[in-house]
Design brief:
The chain is mainly α. The protein has a domain of about 45 residues. Helix content is about 70%, strand content about 5%. The longest helix is centred in the C-terminal third of the chain and has 43 residues. The protein is elongated and about 115 Å long.
């Protein structure tokens, strides 16, 4: 053998020979049903299985990123939902402003009333018990 050998003259590796045999006999080795199962499993895993992220430390819990399809659908829907919400808010500014004013007004008064009731209720209960004990009423 000399340095002018071509690729045809070189002996083939085991890996190359096995690869050739699989290519030649794939029809006998894998039925259409087997191929369908393989494709179904591969697509399910590729598009819908969450991706395990590398751990930061040996004892840190496993974390997962969303699956390819879930991630992209979420991104697309987020953009569309954001746009739809922005459009709705622009169309209903006056109505929304009225609802905000009502909620803030009622909310503050309701909050203040609850706070006042909590502060006063205990003292009023003590006062009532004191009056009952002074006139001889036992509960």
């Amino acid at each position: 053998m000399n340095g002018s050998q071509t690729a045809i003259d070189k002996p083939r590796t085991l890996q190359e020979r096995v690869g050739d045999r699989i290519r030649d006999q794939i029809g006998d080795l894998m039925t259409d049903a087997d191929l369908k199962l393989l494709v179904d499993k591969a697509l399910q895993e590729a598009f819908f299985t969450p991706v395990e992220l590398p751990q930061q430390h040996w004892n840190s819990p496993k974390e997962y990123a969303p699956a390819f399809a879930v991630k992209h659908v979420r991104e697309l829907l987020t953009e569309r939902v954001d746009a739809a919400c922005a459009a709705w808010l622009a169309e209903h500014k006056d109505e929304l402003g009225k609802h905000i004013d009502d909620a803030v007004g009622k909310g503050f008064l309701g909050f203040f009333q609850t706070w006042l009731d909590t502060k006063v209720q205990n003292e009023m209960f003590k006062f009532g018990e004191m009056i009952k004990s002074q006139i001889g009423i036992r509960t």
